[in-house]
């Protein structure tokens, strides 16, 4: 199989779809890897390193897309890439289609096979290809939130760690999954007071044991969310329903109970955001203010730390790429139901129920 890796074109996106060790593994398995020149520069990976691993360096993205059987990326295709999509192409990347009806239609019209990292799911519910970036985003959420709480950044002037004689800041985390757990770890490590709201009581009990009482856990409801917003200096939106739009847990009216200069970091923005007032932002202009509340809604947070993110992502995505390359797409799907769950579009049909329900479309069950 020919695997193509183009340079990412999303604003301030410095990650790349594969690292040299991944190239070497694919080449040793008998496959060809095409890398667009300069694709790895943002992650500190040189063309020479890719070439030494066995990759063929290609001058243009169009040629990479045209020659590849499978294109391995990080982010969803953007409008300049739409003309490069074609029937039979396997697109292996983060798609986050639920809030993107235009892209969904483009993929359906092009009859692309889209395997979305974020919906590859083990039988126990774990999302192995989303997890590494969720870990990064959860940890980053506290870093960026702490920064924007500073007065010179527009915040209320609260130091999350506090100091002796002065109470620490309060962090409220909505959700109890991977993003939430990593955010809690960072916030507690800083010395903040941390409350986590979730619906899975068993998971909350596990986290209570894990953090040995340093994390306050609450069953999530509108009442508890509103009460927590009144205390919070920093709110981290970390809710996820795989493949579906994020639920809107914070209305604009609810912002009125928050202290001016407080910060919301909506990590769920990839799936539409969990705050009514959230809309996607970019690293070049990451925040905006609504009713005196700072909103940070960067849809590719891990792109700010590409060296860590790229290597963490390839660790997770490469084994599935190797399986598709070795077995062919349909056999790989038959042999791995977890990978099969990652297929969102196939031969002009929408295969993910959650995406269909989010967009009011019909969907088809896959069979191989």
What distinguishing features does this structure have?
12 helices, 17% strand, Rossmann fold, seven-stranded mixed sheet, 2 domains, 368 residues, alpha/beta
Write the layout of secondary structure elements.
Layout: E1 2-5, H1 20-28, E2 32-36, H2 47-52, E3 56-58, H3 61-67, E4 70-72, E5 90-93, H4 101-110, E6 113-116, H5 131-148, E7 170-174, H6 178-190, E8 193-198, H7 201-210, E9 215-219, H8 222-229, E10 234-237, E11 263-266, E12 287-290, E13 293-296, H9 306-327, H10 329-335, H11 337-340, E14 343-346, E15 349-350, H12 353-359
Parallel strand pairs: 1-2, 1-4, 2-3, 4-5, 5-6, 7-8, 7-10, 8-9, 10-11, 11-13
Antiparallel strand pairs: 6-14, 12-13, 14-15
Helix pairs in contact: 5-6, 9-10
* Count of the separate structural domains: 2
What do the pLDDT scores average to? Answer: 96
Taking pLDDT < 50 over at least 5 consecutive residues as the criterion, the unreliable ranges are: none
**What is the succession of H and E elements?**
EHEHEHEEHEHEHEHEHEEEEHHHEEH
Secondary-structure arrangement, i.e. CATH architecture of the largest domain: 3-Layer(aba) Sandwich
Could you give me the name of the CATH homologous superfamily of the largest domain? NAD(P)-binding Rossmann-like Domain
Instruction: Determine the strand fraction and express it as a percent band.
Output: 15-25%
Q: N- to C-terminal separation?
A: 20 Å
Strand line-up across the major sheet? 3-2-1-4-5-6-14-15
Using the coordinates shown, work out and report the CATH topology of the largest domain. Answer: Rossmann fold
CATH class of the largest domain: Alpha Beta
Q: Which class best fits the helix and strand makeup?
A: alpha/beta
Shape: globular
How many strands? Answer: 15
Number of helices: 12
What's the helical proportion of residues? 25-40%
Largest sheet: 8 strands, mixed
Mind telling me the C-alpha Rg?
21 Å
